[in-house]
Amino acid sequence: MAIKRALAVLALASSLLVSPVLAEEQEKCGQASYYPSEYTCYDDKTLCPIQFSLPTKPCGGGCYSPEQYSCEDGTIKDLPEATSPFTLTFSGVRKTFRNLHVKACGRYLAVGANARECYSCAASGGTNCGSYQNSTVLLPGGQMASDVPGHQFWYVNPTDGILRYTEALASNATTWNATIPGKEFAGQNVKVYENGLFTWTREDATTHWWMACLVTLPGGTVGTGRSWRIYAPTYVNMERGDCEIGRIVAKAVDRKAGAYKYP
Ligand SMILES: *[C@@H]1O[C@H](CO)[C@@H](O)[C@H](O)[C@H]1NC(C)=O
Ligand SMILES: *[C@@H]1O[C@H](CO)[C@@H](O)[C@H](O)[C@H]1NC(C)=O
Ligand SMILES: *[C@@H]1O[C@H](CO)[C@@H](O)[C@H](O)[C@H]1NC(C)=O
User: Side-chain half-sphere of 118: how many Cα atoms within 13 Å?
Assistant: First the structure.
């Protein structure tokens, strides 16, 4: 319920109904007044809304999200789908949820100050552990940028909509075809734009936003969570009240920015 309400509010934010910053000074853009937390003024004449703390830009009389489109001679065009390895950042509305690096640890992808980024490497069989930079890097199509035998895969878990990745097989594993839970869902229903949005397609629509939901330790009270896991906005998840909504943006990086293994 909370998420649906927040979305409705966002849809209305183009009016001056909501001013997220208390006592924020209005500024002038030509004749128009605006709140700089909600709009960007271009050339003192065009106002474009800020969505999930990401500015949109003017193009041919409208505004576009540069994470999804490019503007060529006044025409808005789709960005190409990602072909490069990429890292991800989550951008929500609140200041504390802006540009958060998405980190892999324990088969979950999470954000927040307490989210850990886990990686490992066992030097054997010619593996040069020093050649990995150990960032959380994903590949288009569903693999993690890891080099373990059998590979690791990222996926949206169909039962709960959580963004996860698969375990790594042991380096001496002989059954590389072994069924790794989650592997069969690798990259499914997710479309990634090159240096742009990471989107998820539900049965009825493509969503351009995700949810970061607080993880509370077993037996802990709310607020003692270690991190915010990433959830796809399934109808069930949208009923949750303990989540931040935001966009996830991919940034192209070198494959070697990844790790040997994401434990
Ligand atoms: C990445 O992790 C491996 C294994 O822990 C380590 O050997 C390597 O030096 C790390 N790379 C960097 C750039 O820190
Ligand atoms: C792989 O190595 C682990 C730990 O060294 C060992 O317990 C396991 O039996 C090995 N598996 C195979 C298939 O050799
Ligand atoms: C693994 O899969 C490949 C291709 O699907 C197949 O040719 C091979 O026989 C399989 N190996 C094992 C050990 O199952």
Answer: 15
Number of alpha carbons in the 13 Å side-chain half-sphere of residue 110: 20
Q: Which tens digit of pLDDT belongs to each residue from 142-166?
A: 999 999 888 999 999 999 999 999 9
Q: Where are the domains of the chain?
A: 3-78, 86-257
For residue 134, the CA-to-ligand 1 centroid distance in Å is 6
Dihedral (CA of 95, 100, 105, 107) sign: positive
Does residue 134 line the site of ligand 1, with CB under 6 A? yes
Between 19 and 83, where is the model more confident? Answer: 83
Statement: residue 2 has pLDDT above 80: no
Say whether pTM exceeds 0.70.
Answer: yes
Out of 176, 177, 180, 183, mutate this one to test ligand 3's pocket (max ligand atoms within 8 Å of CB): namely 177
